[in-house]
């Protein structure tokens, strides 16, 4: 139970990180702030990477629970 709640919290943090990174990238490109662009790209990529890993592990656990081999 705690593991599932922790996974949801990490996923929400990753989504917030991706949103923050996208905001920084937007401000850097549209607003002309190159420091925000340079800062925003790694933050955005971190959010995408963590979200992708969580979704992949959730998919793997779902198929393992159903007994489907891939």
Task: Give a short synopsis of this structure.
The protein is mainly α and 70 residues long.
Could you please describe the fold and organization of this structure?
The protein is an all-alpha fold. 89% of the residues lie in helices and 0% in strands. The chain has two helices and no strands. Helix 1 (2-30) runs antiparallel to helix 2. The longest helix is centred in the C-terminal third of the chain and has 33 residues, at 34-66. It is elongated and about 50 Å long. It starts with a helix and ends with a helix. The relative contact order is 0.15. The mean pLDDT is 89.
Oligomer: single chain
Shape: elongated
Put simply, the count of helices is 2
pLDDT < 50 stretches:
none
Write the element-wise H/E pattern from the N-terminal end onward. HH
Q: What is the average per-residue confidence, as pLDDT, rounded to a whole number?
A: 89
* Computed CA radius of gyration, to the nearest angstrom: 16 Å
How much of the sequence lies in strands comes to under 5%
Taking the sheet with the most strands, its summary is: none
Percent of residues in helices comes to: over 70%
Strands, count: 0
Descriptors for this entry?
single chain; 70 residues; mainly alpha; elongated
SSE order and pairing:
Blueprint (H helix, E strand, L loop, with lengths): L1 H29 L3 H33 L4
Helix pairs in contact: 1-2
């Amino acid at each position: 139970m705690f593991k599932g709640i922790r996974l949801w919290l990490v996923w929400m943090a990753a989504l917030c990180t991706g949103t923050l990174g996208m905001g920084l990238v937007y401000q850097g490109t549209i607003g002309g702030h190159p420091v925000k662009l340079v800062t925003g790209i790694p933050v955005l990529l971190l959010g995408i990477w963590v979200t992708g890993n969580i979704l992949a592990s959730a998919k793997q656990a779902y198929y393992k629970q159903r007994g489907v081999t891939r």
